[in-house]
Amino acid sequence: MLHFSRWKVTAILAAVLLAVVFALPNIMSPSQQEAVARFGMRPMTLGLDLQGGSNLLLEVDRKDMMAQLQQQLASDIRAGLRTAKIGYGGIQRVGTGVSVTITKPEDYSAARDELQKLVQPVSGGLFGGGQQTSLYVMKQDNGTFSFEVQDTGLQAKIAAALKQVIEIVKKRVDASGTTEAVVQQQGSDRIVLQLPGIGDPQKVLALVGKTGALKFQLVCADQPGASNQRPPLDCQSYPRKEDVDALIKAKAAKGDTTEPTADELAKLPQLWVQTGSRATVDGADLTDAQPSFDQNNRAVVTFRFNQKGAVRFGKLTAENVNKPFAIVLDGVVQSAPVINEPILGGSGQISGQFTTDETANLAVVLRSGALPAKLVVVEQRTVGPSLGSDSIRAGLIASVVGLGLVVVFMVIAYGLFGIFANLALLINLVMLIAIMSFMGFTLTLPGIAGIVLTMGMAVDSNVIIFERQREEWRNGRSAISSIETGFKTAFGTILDSNFTALIAAIVLLGVGSGPVRGFAIAHAIGILTTIFTAYTVTRLIVATWMRWAKPKEVPL
Asked: Confidence band (pLDDT; 50, 70, 90) for 207?
């Protein structure tokens, strides 16, 4: 049991040496860390609670989603009735739904069959699966058909949109260069965005908060003559970017840094654009977008469509030469150039009064895709670096005090073997830090708590071993037999106790979030390193000492 072959000794020492190497960047200077980074060696990243940063709570805008559903429903009703060649009157929004009137009584039955196709089920229930629910419910009153959005259907739609939102926000944050950001769902319609090291979240918020809905729409022939004039049925009104920028500057001059409200935007001069499918190309078919400069050295964004988008864009421009079309992003007209000739290459550029930073952010938004729902800021908190340094200092004090007390207790209680246990404990901590650094885990205050807990649990294993050896020695066994039997019989107990603790850590990791996961990760890794060091490393140290000292008694 105490015999180690040469390859086992080499493997254990190599593992310890490797751990020391990968743990070293945590005590290196920034320049040294940068030099060794190319070898895969990096320090642990500090979490929001340690290095400071920003915490944002974002929520899906239900009103905006409802408006999207109503607009989409109106378009689907119009397209379906036109395809079936059924005459209809006005399509209008009523409450949370849409109504349409069929002009001829003989078309009522055909209209019912056609419109019933729009009542599509969506997944509801736990985790978006299980029970099916309809997004709309259709009612008929003679020739008038009305659709209402159901609460259960809307909630299922929001839940599905939230999953897409989280993935897209992650892509945008990663593309912006923000490292170790945390994007997590909270409740049924909110996400938490944590940005370690970002003291001013406005730049990132401007990036992730943009819906990124890009459309190329033909300009309507009729344009508003008054500010409060409503657009025709097949047109929609949007403000121009230069007017929105002027409004933002005017508000900033008054000390108001909030985004323009819908009412403020509605008071700006509007441009009417067509909403029909034949007059619109959706930006969802973009495959790439990059910041660039045009021939006049103005900042622009160049884009490229996939094959489907290129065909549609080419057809739109070919059929509407010498007509203006608007480039609309998130409900704002970026520019409205005239189509001088068909654009058949599947690529183009978006120009306007952009700064270089704006084109870079816009390119990131377009590459990552449009958000399926608008996000609004519910809460915004900033954690200062002073609080983070205080937390680090408190964590270090707790760790040092805890480690010191454990070391003193082990020496007093077990003498020489206590020193061996303390040496194994230090190796355990080095291996824990090395693994967390190599895997790129983020260290938080709960993570520090997990490390401190590991220190206590690590010596627990040695206590079990040493107490069993002491018992065997008192029962009359020889020193070598007592030590060997102690390691042999204690192994099962150590394995069982650590395995049950590992189960608890895995459960915390699976169902927990945020700080709980940070604690669970540190605790789980600490359990694995404890099993290795308490049994293997301590046994190797004791075996080496026995070959050198050849003891006649157990020094316990």
From this structure: low
